[in-house]
Amino acid sequence: MTTESAVTVSKLVKRYGDMIALDDFNLDVKTGEIFGLLGPNGSGKTTAINCILALLTYDAGTIRVFGQPMTPNSYALKRRIGIVPQNVAVFNELTVSENIDYFCSLYVPKKAEREPLVEEAIAFVGLQDFRTFRPGKLSGGLLRRLNIACGIAHKPDLIFFDEPTVAVDPQSRNAILEGITQLNKAGATVIYTSHYMEEVEQICDRILIMDHGKHLALGTADELKSMIDTGERITIETLDLTDTTLDNVRALAFVIEATYNGRELNIRCRRGDHNLVDLLGILHGAGANVGHLTSQPPTLNDVFLEMTGKALRD
């Protein structure tokens, strides 16, 4: 990652009638990074991406890609961009090889130059044994891999991945994430959206959280976690917790939320140095038997929930 910007969005405003989809939205993606863009449904992610790609007009603001203004006629810039959409976009009438060749031809018109690129893309996504298959014969995971190959065969410098692992098996998900990391190591800048927080935390250098068309927070996963009030989550096995004891747990100053299902007590805590000690003091004082106990640090899901008031899938 460098200090140079691959994508710079400044004070972007996009309206649909009376609705403001993007409200003075700012974004700065550095060249060479994997950048996570997170937001609940309707937050403005897709609108922002379509504006960056010059697929939508906007009301105010500026967009620059690799230091140059991005317009509908910026064909030289567009040749440097690859898009892997959430919805698989391939032709059912064409084979795997033919699909990749077609999408590559949109950027590389000479067939002789395309042939090695197509072969490299097929190998990169592991579809060598399926090159003559049509999409209808591929599993969901293989179809996602084909979708990726179609978007990256022309070797773009900037790649947008929009939910690339939706509804795929764990093996294919791991292969896709490893592939994205390899593309990045080879020099591509990546903008990545996902509803899977563990993926974002695994591969993204920095993460931006947005909602209602606005920039809410930006940083590494650890930096984002340090911005919130939520601390650890504690889970305790106990079979004899009374309503009175549960009320006493909820009354502790550091407890944000405490739930009990008859077997497990789950507590979401604020940051503190003695949370677990104080909690166990309440339970032992009430004579509750304590079994297995776990304490987990805050997650990106906690960050997202506290900043937006919603789960990512809402």
UniProtKB/TrEMBL annotation:
Alphabetized InterPro entries for the sequence: AAA+_ATPase, ABC_transporter-like_ATP-bd, DrrA1/2-like_C, P-loop_NTPase
Domain of life, per lineage: Bacteria
Gene3D superfamilies: P-loop containing nucleotide triphosphate hydrolases
ABC transporter domain residues: 7-237
Keywords from the named record: ATP-binding, Nucleotide-binding, Transport
ATP-binding recorded as keyword: yes
Keyword Transport attached: yes
GO molecular function: ATP binding; ATP hydrolysis activity
Protein's recorded name: ABC transporter ATP-binding protein
